[in-house]
Amino acid sequence: MKNLLILAQAADPQTVSTVTSEPVTAEQTTTTAVVDSNPAPQTSPARKTTPLMQFLPLILIVVFVYLLMFRGPRKKQQEHTKMLQNLKKNDRVRTIGGILGTIVDIKDDDITLKIDESNNTKIHITSSAIGKNLSQKP
Q1: What is the dihedral of CA 129, 132, 133, 135, to 10 degrees?
Q2: Residue 81, CA distances (Å) to 44, 66, 84, 87, 107 in order
Q3: Which of 1, 30, 73, 131 could disulfide-pair with 96, CB 3.0 to 4.6 Å?
Q4: Number of domains the chain contains
Q5: Would you say residue 48 lies in a domain?
Q6: Alpha-helical segments (H) within 38-71
Q7: 3-state helix, strand, coil in the chain (%, to 5)
Q8: Does 52 reside within a domain?
Q9: Cα 22 to chain centroid, rounded
Q10: How far apart are CA 22 and CA 33, in angstroms?
């Protein structure tokens, strides 16, 4: 093994290259030269992406989740609050428990409902227990 030849192959198989080599002896180091007869065409440099562009999909997902999970229920809560503020005497309502009645009296957070006309049965509930105003037009 006094003489050792080292050969190299070009990375691009379409380019024709000439590989030269020199024999290696114990006192020498290896030298290899590659000469390309058809250089590869220059490609455009890679586009640099900004950190904003890298995180844009994550930002869009967070915005979508916010709209889906937080904005919808908040809007529904605002509509319910508006409905409670517009309640007045003689409105027909349904409670969240399913009791149907007519509003007899409203005092701050306490509402008196008449639930039976024949024996004049009344109940006192909080305004948050009102589920729907049946007197309003849909």
Answers
A1: -140
A2: 60, 22, 5, 10, 16
A3: 131
A4: 2
A5: no
A6: 51-66
A7: 30, 30, 45
A8: no
A9: 62
A10: 9
pTM: 0.53
Cβ-contact 127, 84 below 8 angstroms:
yes
Burial class (CB in 10 A: 0-12, 13-18, 19+), 93: buried
**Measuring CA to CA, which residue among 108, 84, 135, 134 is closest to residue 124?**
108
Which residues are CB-contacts of 110 (< 8 A; sequence separation ≥ 6)? 124, 125, 126, 127
Instruction: Walk along the chain (138 residues) and give the pLDDT tens digit of each residue.
Output: 566 656 655 566 565 555 555 566 666 655 555 555 665 566 666 777 788 888 999 999 999 998 888 888 899 999 999 999 999 999 999 999 999 999 999 998 999 999 998 999 999 999 999 999 998 876
Query: Would you call 119 helix, strand, or coil by DSSP?
Result: coil
Domain span at residue 17 reads 1-37
